[in-house]
Amino acid sequence: MSETVEAMDVIALCCPKYKDRPQIARVVQKTSNGYSIHWMAGSYSGPWAEAKKRDGRKLVPWVDTIKESDIIYKKIALTSNHKLSNKVVQTLRSLYAAREGGAS
Description:
The protein is an alpha+beta fold. The protein has one domain. The chain contains one helix and eight strands. It has one helix spanning 86-103; strands spanning 10-13, 23-31, 34-41, 49-50, 52-55, 58-61, 63-66, 71-73. Strands 1, 2, 3, 4, 7 and 8 form a six-stranded antiparallel sheet that branches. Strands 5-6 form a two-stranded antiparallel ribbon. It is globular and about 35 Å long.
């Protein structure tokens, strides 16, 4: 896990404030205390797209700031149809299981 995270990289996160899994985001930029990210919406088996949230009537990109320690998997390559590969899905499931077991 020593590789660096660059802008536009897709990463997996484990943020305690959000319960749904998996948590995938695209890095927008590195900030002084972590990373600015653009959340992505999808599922283990379905396609992924950049998440939007409501701002009044408009839908705006869901941007957030995270700490380096929230990242559990770096450099995720989505398949040509924007899905997670089987290898990534298995890795993420085991990483989340380990986090859940260790946290509770």
